[in-house]
Amino acid sequence: MHSRFRSDRRLTVRMTVTLFLLGLLYVAFVAALIALLKSWVLVVVIAAALLGAQYWFSDRIALYAMRGRVVERDEYPQLHGVVDRLCAVADMPKPVVAVSDMEMPNAFATGRNPDNAVICVTTGLLRRLEPAELEGVLAHELSHVAHKDVAVITVASFLGVIAGLIVRFAFYSQLFGGGRRDQNTAVVFLGIMAVSAAVYAISFLLIRALSRYRELAADRAAALLTGRPSALASALTKVTGDIARIPTKDLRTAQAFNAFYFTPALGRGPDVARLFSTHPSLEERIEQLGRISAELGEATAPRKA
Is 279 annotated as a binding residue? Predict the structure, then answer.
């Protein structure tokens, strides 16, 4: 099913290339583990089970981790009303609507396809935004679902997560149990750590590059669907500024899900730390929305004359 969100060929190409490269990396990763552990059945079964679990249950995992709960229309009629209107305009299935009781203003979408999607907003976001701003944020999240990049980023993130977990497991196993292992076992563990660390680093860079572009694509699609780029720009400015004032310790739990958020859960850290961000800079996003606003203004000028 095709929605009325404007398609983005460059996003499609980037998603395809990223998945292809990660697929090759995944095969090489599994092959390396089989060679090191000398047990292909164990590696393949565990890898397939974990990938399937993340794909099928990613929405539930994300909601649980961010303390989100599904809400009905009578609890949040305005929120449901905005989602209903946007889905009607975009000609797409309505996702499950959820709310997370968090002070941090943010929103995210998750799910393996448009028919099994969840869109979640925090209570902090609902308290801060005007109706037009909220519409822009929700349109942004719905465009992620329509473009299917939510499913892509979920699958793409899997390899990095597993590699990271293996590095930690191997490190702590060596740290606390190294004295009880022979030299061959130690070499195997060091090999697993090295391969996993390399895989994590490569997948990290690939996912960050895709994530930054998909956020710009979602901003663009939302602005064109609603016809109000300025409202989305206002929401971006307001949310980013408010997140920066939230204590860092309160953002740590949320940072693991930055790739899914409307804006990253980051404080005012050094610029170097933002080079590997999941999102483009606020300035870049605002600049793009400014260009779209000018384009829409030029397109509507002749009609007013």
Answer: no
Q: Is 215 annotated as a binding residue?
A: yes
Q: Which two tokens stand for residue 249?
A: 């310790």
Three-state DSSP state, 97: strand
- The answer to whether 232 touches 289, Cβ cutoff 8 Å, is yes
Q: What gap in Å lies between CA 75 and CA 177, rounded to an integer?
A: 52
- Buried/exposed code over 41-64 (b: 16+ C-beta within 10 A; e: otherwise): eebeeebeeeeeebeeebbeebbe
CA dist 305 and 293 (Å) reads 19
With cut-offs at 50, 70 and 90, classify the pLDDT of residue 181.
Answer: low
Alpha carbon distances (Å) from 17 to 37, 159, 189, 265, 298: 30, 15, 31, 27, 35
| Active-site residue identified among 103, 130, 135, 141 | 141
> Of 41-55, 56-70, 102-116, which gets the smallest average pLDDT?
41-55
CA diameter of the chain: 84
- pLDDT at 267 exceeding the cut of 70: no
* List of E strands, 18-150: 68-70, 96-100, 107-111, 117-122
Tens-place pLDDT, residues 186-234: 676 677 777 777 777 887 888 888 889 999 999 999 999 999 999 999 9
Q: Give residues with Cβ within 8 angstroms of 182, minimum separation 6.
A: none
**Which are the contacts of 234, defined by CB distance < 8 A and separation ≥ 6?**
130, 132, 133, 136
Contact 142, 120 (CB under 8 A): no
Residue 2 is assigned to a ligand binding site: no
Structure tokens belonging to residue 66 = 């961010």
Is residue 141 part of the annotated active site? The answer reads: yes
pLDDT at 292: 94
Which of the four pLDDT bands, split at 50, 70 and 90, describes residue 182? low
